[in-house]
Design goal:
Order of helices and strands: EHEHEEEHEHHHEEEHEEEEEEE
Largest sheet: 8 strands, antiparallel
Helix content: 10-25%
Distance between the termini: 22 Å
Structural class: alpha+beta
Number of helices: 7
């Protein structure tokens, strides 16, 4: 009656498969998995970001924090995405006010003499997707609960062990929160994340789950995830990305993005392409080129990866009994 414990074996480079073709890239997104979308963007921090850094500057080789005032690392949760062909292209919807939207759709250098350049945005920004598994639900919720515009979501390497001794995975000193309202509990948790970062949210190199120093400009995945995709923005469709999204102003702006909403006035449709990808060998059926949890003698030995029903409710992607 021994209960099978679903854990990912400690990965080594040989346990990660470097995918080679657009068809293989697309297969990773066939099931519309929940993803962490990660960005590393060179741009000045906003004042709210600089405040904490001025008190405790990050070390240059610290893999978990923005390293200086020109580098900003961020991560968000993405579930509205789908493969659009078998050559690695896909599309996703994102709200125009999200901080990640700002990072993925950077302005071109403005020519003050050219009024039409004021809403001209670049395509070609790179980002990464990484796919979490069962057991990472609380990390996913925490990442989605706060904007990277106000703080770094990542913990400092130097103080991670100290924080974990003082604050468990759940709300710190939970017994003291029993009489708090849901709103008060949420505020307490948000204050904790702003000051301490998200527990167990650890950046790792693409194609690995082993913590290692990262160069300042390196794209990264999240530790514990089982598929890593390096991606590039190909096309932007949706409302003009300006502070004033009035339809009349959109038409006069000369925006690089479409002036007609592809979805609605609040969401941008981004078409992107996968340019490189890795998958953990326990989640890749090399005979059929399928992204699925592998089984041994008909038994599932690794946790399934996540999909999303809505209302903070997750589902799990597993093969049918006929395919096990």
């Amino acid at each position: 009656n021994m209960k099978l414990k679903c854990t990912i074996p400690k990965p080594t480079p040989a346990e990660w498969i470097h995918l080679q073709s657009g068809k293989e890239f697309s297969r990773l997104l066939y099931t519309n998995p929940v993803c962490f979308l990660s960005t590393t963007t060179s741009q000045p921090f906003e004042k709210a970001d600089r405040d904490s850094d001025e008190k405790a500057p990050a070390k240059k080789n610290d893999p978990q924090l923005p390293h200086n005032n020109n580098i900003k690392r961020n991560v968000m949760v993405l579930s509205w995405l789908t493969a659009s062909n078998n050559n690695g292209r896909f599309l996703f919807s994102i709200h125009k006010t999200r901080y990640t939207t700002q990072l993925l759709t950077r302005r071109r250098a403005l020519d003050e003499s050219d009024a039409s350049s004021k809403s001209n945005y670049e395509v070609g920004a790179e980002f990464s997707l990484s796919v979490p598994v069962k057991g990472m639900e609380e990390i996913v919720k925490d990442v989605g609960s706060i904007s990277g515009r106000c703080c770094s979501k990542f913990q400092s390497v130097a103080s991670t062990s100290l924080r974990k001794e003082s604050f468990p995975r759940a709300e710190p000193q939970k017994d003291m929160c029993d009489n708090l309202s849901n709103r008060q509990r949420k505020k307490r948790k948000m204050d904790y994340i702003k000051n301490n970062g998200i527990n167990d949210l650890i950046p790792v190199p693409l194609g690995s789950n082993v913590e290692a120093p990262l160069e300042e400009s390196d794209l990264f995945a999240i530790k514990g995830t089982v598929a890593h995709l390096r991606c590039r923005v190909y096309t932007l469709l949706g409302p003009a990305l300006s502070d004033n999204l009035d339809a009349t102003n959109e038409k006069e702006s000369g925006a690089n993005a479409s002036t007609q909403p592809a979805i609605d006035d609040d969401h941008l449709l981004i078409i992107a392409e996968v340019i490189d990808a890795y998958v953990h060998s326990s989640y890749w059926d090399s005979n059929r080129s399928l992204f699925r949890p592998m089984t041994k003698e008909g038994e599932q030995t690794v946790p399934p990866y996540l999909t999303f029903f809505g209302s903070q409710t997750f589902g799990y992607v597993v093969p049918s009994n006929d395919d096990m």
